[in-house]
Amino acid sequence: MLPSTGLIYRSRLPSAMDTLNAEQSAAVTHGTGETAADTRPLLIIAGAGSGKTHTLAHRVAHLIRHGADPQRLLLLTFSRRAAQEMAQRAGAVLQRALQLPPTQAPPGLPWAGTFHAIGARLLREYAPRLGLEPGFTIHDRGDAEDLMGLVRHETGLSATHKRFPQKGTCLGIYSRVVNTREPLAAVLASTYPWCAAWEAELKTLFGAYVEAKQAQNVLDYDDLLLFWAEMMAEPALAAEVGARFDHVLVDEYQDTNRLQAEIVRAMKPGGQGVTVVGDDAQSIYSFRGATVRNILDFPHQFSQSARIVTLERNYRSTQPVLQASNAVIAAARERHAKQLWTDRGAGRPVQLLLVPDDAGQARWIADDVLREREAGLRLKSQAVLFRTSSHSAALELELARRNIPFVKFGGLKFLEAAHVKDVLALLRFAENPRSRMAGFRAALLVPGIGQASATRLLDAMAEAADPVAALQAFVPPPQAQADWAAFAALYARLREPALAWPADMELARAWYQPQLERLHDDAAVRKLDVEQLARLATGFASRERFLTELTLDPPQSTSDESGAPHRDEDYLVLSTIHSAKGQEWRSVHVLNVVDGCIPSDMATGTTEEIEEERRLLYVAMTRARDRLTLVVPHRFYVTQQSGGGDRHMYAGRSRFIAESMLPHFEQLTWPAADAAAPLLAREAAGPVMSIRARARAAWR
Ligand SMILES: Nc1ncnc2c1ncn2[C@@H]1O[C@H](COP(=O)(O)OP(=O)(O)OP(=O)(O)O)[C@@H](O)[C@H]1O
Questions:
Q1: Whose CA is nearest to atom 16 of ligand 1?
Q2: How far apart are CA 417 and CA 297, in angstroms?
Q3: Where is the UvrD-like helicase C-terminal domain (predicted)?
Q4: Which end is more exposed in the chain, N or C (fewer Cβ atoms within 10 Å of the end residue's Cβ)?
Q5: Cα dist from 253 to 115, 275, 291, 303, 305, whole Å
Q6: Backbone φ and ψ of 492, nearest 5°
């Protein structure tokens, strides 16, 4: 509370709130002032571009202005970036409302973060009461998969004569069971029917996986939610944690899963102080166990029914963009009723562009992007969105060829690069000597230490009461002696309590550099990544925070052949639709709006999957402010089709753009119909012969 400024606030109130429309204002002020007696939980159904972020930021600021203590305000977001943005926007509103001088920072939001990050924090704090060791490290998906692979091997399942599911599939099943709270058999039946015969073995595997995690004092992503939910199932602890927060606000509620909903309910069973914001029409994460039911069922999940405020006025898009998007989502099966409207002007029609193939698609987009730039639209205000990271390959080549700088979001595996994993493993091993995965990886980096020696080391450490002493006492093979001594010395330094972060990173880097040169021909390029990691490190207060935050919310973007653009340079944005969530651009192109890409041919099994793909297209379309083009290549190239290898596919316009919706689009063909006709006609006739079949037949 900021008591001395109450009067100023009241006089400033109109200008702080006058950017809100009536519904936004109702949501922002719910439970305060005239509605102070209304203790119902609040559900804000916010259509695309209707000011969800705007409203939530104002609500946070408003609550603080009305006496809420920022320390007692829990704000759960989908990504760390979203948490930072929310804190910054709420801060800006407060700054205005309180007329703070620019030099005086508004109060921060110490409890803003993702469910996973907040879970990790609470679990560390409550660890002693939960029978957990507070020094746990967190496995990212890659580590978790590796550990699952190891356990799969140790339990003898990799040697079964019929092919047992791969480690990635096993982890997927495990994760789904945890996040959806469904029994294994149900998950197998609904989502992994081809693995159903392995139910008993999978149970054994998952039991062993859980034991391995516990022995190593590591938690995976799912544990962060699971343990938090388990903690909240203990009424005394739930009451205690719930009482720490006067307000619990959840953003992007449509993409939460059962566990997350359970956590919120357990903290605030009466619903008082709970605000959730979301749009069922934008729910796109069911493959990670999210369930749109959370938002559909929210009104009746607390001891008092929720107040629902619906935001239907879209501030983002022009009339044609909104009409086309509305038409696409109107065909969805189940949703909270709302009809978005905008009073933004008529604007340019939405284009539905037919091109011969993905090379043509890339050429057209590159031309168009440059045309728009000539007309004054910066590259940064333009985005190209796609269903799957690999869909942008042809476009990336074309952009690089023409020297058009771009940044790609959503396809990056920065943390999965071997050299980045090496450095992180070293730091993780220093943080948690029980982490077998990290230890194994780190030990193998020492020249002369192979699998057998590494196993011997890790076994000795696992059995010892003091694993650090066991490492120092380890006798390496003779050829590794000198290098091992250097490694053991490094390890001892990394464990020194007085070492001040990020000195650890510098020590690790200095030791790793010669290993990098020894292990990789392209060490010079990889070194840049390690430097990038070191730069990132400086932004964190401690090694533990760095490892936790980086694991929970890895960096999302990369740039490709065109060279890394500097922050102040202009660049085109390429993004998967999933990573485009919550963002907006003046001009948006959506690639491959064809059946097989969207809906993806990997997701056409069930009605739910198809519905989610429809929402994905809707999310993509509603990112556009002024201009939207959906590109339909008649033929496109696909990579790594299971069993089929790389090949060309012929496809039709996505089923989500039904005949009846065509009046909402301007249909174009490129190259102009005359030029394209011979090509299209040739292709429409299909292949005359199959070269591949002939090649196979030659060996029969
Ligand atoms: N009351 C308002 N007056 C003027 N502009 C507004 C208002 N509310 C929101 N906007 C603007 O509308 C745009 C969309 O807002 P915001 O990003 O908060 O929407 P959103 O609901 O989070 O969108 P989505 O769910 O589609 O990602 C932004 O440019 C924002 O500044």
A1: 51
A2: 41
A3: 319-582
A4: C
A5: 11, 10, 9, 19, 17
A6: -60, -40
